[in-house]
Amino acid sequence: ASVHVFPLDFTTEEAMAIASKIMEKVAKKPPVVAPPPPPPPPVVLPVVPFEERVEKLISALKDQTGIFSWETIERIYG
């Protein structure tokens, strides 16, 4: 490797040593961090009228004959 003498009388090795000391003092950029993922969209449940919900519940409790029975409740809820 050839040695260059700079106008200020620094050799290549001395210039590199000075440059590395300067680079140590220069603020380093923070590491690149990916932004956090966006929050999931809110869950929107369909609005079901109260009467419709009650009708569905009652129909689920009826037995095959269409008659509300305690046996059906016991079978569903144990």
Task: Explain this structure.
This protein has helices at 12-25, 50-61, 70-77. With 78 residues, the protein is mainly α. It has a domain at 45-77. The longest helix is centred in the N-terminal third of the chain and has 14 residues, at 12-25. It starts with 11 loop residues before the first helix and ends with a helix.
Core attributes:
rod-shaped, single chain, mainly alpha, 78 residues
Question: How are the SSEs placed, and which strands pair?
Answer:
Elements: H1 12-25, H2 50-61, H3 70-77
Distance between the termini: 89 Å
Task: Estimate percent helicity.
Answer: 40-55%
Helices, by number, come to 3
The run of helices and strands is HHH
Radius of gyration: 40 Å
Backbone structural class = mainly alpha
Q: Tally of extended strands?
A: 0
Spans of at least 5 consecutive residues with low confidence = none
Largest sheet: none
Average pLDDT figure: 80
> Approximately what portion of the residues adopt beta-strand conformation?
under 5%
Inertia-based shape: rod-shaped
Give a quick precis of the structure.
The chain is an all-alpha fold and 78 residues long. The protein has three helices and no strands. Helices cover 44% and strands 0% of the residues.
